[in-house]
Amino acid sequence: MVEGNLFLSAAGNYDRMLGCTDLEAERSFTIPLGTTANKMYYTFRREPVVLYTYNGFLVKTNSVHVCQLGTVDDPSEIIFHKDVRMNSNRITNLPVPTLPHEAVNKLYVDGTPRKIFHGYVPNLRSHGPVKNDKFGFIVTASSYFSDSFHPIHAFNGLCRSGAESGWKTSGENLNFWIQIQCSDLVRLWRIAIRGTDSNTQRIYEWRLEGSTNGDNFTTLYEAPNPTFIGSEVRYFPIETSDSFNIFRLFC
Question: What is the pLDDT of residues 185-195, one digit of tens each?
């Protein structure tokens, strides 16, 4: 037994070794640190060196906290006081987050819907006679009055009067519709819609439907009277967890 401080001279160019180098199988070597609850030990088999502490193991650099392995809390934590540089390596096996400040995995990010405020459907009207230069969006309708009122014009992003500013049926005033087919499955959370500049032309009974095959449609929103489509842009929330690639406005 040695009482007091033990210092070993490091003069010269020789290594100073303190420990045990001749452990046999299932033998262990332990260095207590004040108590048996704070120690470093190793059992000679295919296992790592174990650092056992009651209040955790704190790493400092120039008296500055860097990280702490374990705490007295239950459950215990690893606390980092500095940035963690992964050197282009990955952090894996992240669970689905439940708290707002938790890190998330790629699967959760890819599968989480995000609200798009500027609109998913782009301006589908081109200059000149071309009806559509945006691939992947196909617009059809039950009928249209003329090429000047082709259903594609309902998605041209313009709010002006006259031809090529919107869609007009060929005289239908009952059970008429306009639909757009998207290139991908889309989950709607809100739509924006408006009618003609003339406030006397309104549509009172209408619903928005979704489909994945063009034959079977699911009602996503049905407007209650007197919810009309008039000259002003109106927004309607869509509450659904399903995705569709065909959307139809049925009047």
Answer: 999 999 998 88
